[in-house]
Amino acid sequence: LLTAISVERCVGVLWPFWCRCHRPKLLSAAMCSLLWGLACVFAGLVYFVCDRGKPGYCRIVLETLCFLNFCFFTPFMILSNVILFIKLKRSSWQHHPARLYTVIFLTVFFYLLFGIPLSVQIFLNFFVYTNFVFEICLLLASVNSSSNPVIYVLVGSYGKSRFRGSVKVVLQRVFEER
């Protein structure tokens, strides 16, 4: 989902006219549904293949996940955010929803910092298994999953003298486009 959000924001900044006039209205919902479905398929495969004691097939499933993560999702996310950053720096005269871009940047940054090590460790487990390192990577992945709500609240309440209102108000403030 982070990759889809990053690519969609990049396309929205690069071709705003096309996005407003010609982009299919259900494209975001369709992509999110497709990605959630893909995630459910892979989670089911990992559960049924790896937890049922089929090590040969488990390795294939985990290698496919690592390949998709490193060769498809992560490069697209990094590339779209770099393009977005360069485009926004070049066109500083235009007004952009800074909070939304801050949220996207921080979420991607924390994903790269805390989420990627688990995928690297799963890939390295094919060659050398280190239990201690794997547990640290699981901890980092948990920090990554827990960081998103904190990022939303902090960015949503940034600039206010103190935190006021509900979490719903803060989230609305973060994701509104003016």
From TrEMBL:
One of its GO terms (molecular function) is G protein-coupled receptor activity. Gene3D superfamilies: Rhodopsin 7-helix transmembrane proteins (1.20.1070.10). It is a multi-pass membrane protein. The keyword Transmembrane applies. Its main location: membrane. The chain crosses the membrane at residues 26-48, 60-86, 98-120, 132-155. GO terms for cellular component: plasma membrane. This is Proto-oncogene Mas. The lineage of its organism: Eukaryota, Metazoa, Chordata, Craniata, Vertebrata.
